[in-house]
Fold:
Amino acid sequence: METSRSDRPRDVPTLGSKGGTVGERVDELQAAARETHTELARRIRSVDDASAETARVDGLADRMTAIEERLATIEERLAE
Structure:
């Protein structure tokens, strides 16, 4: 999905908007690429952490179900 300039947050600078030499623009683009890479890596770690937490909770839920089933069996035996 493409966004128009009016949809862009106002505090985000446009790449190359400072003018300057080609070398300065390359430096600016490289810095922006590093920042983007760092942010993407942070977000990926966040998703990985959330996925691991979901798997952990799912595992706990499975264990709780098994414990409840065992408890029900014990209660049935005691009721006899």
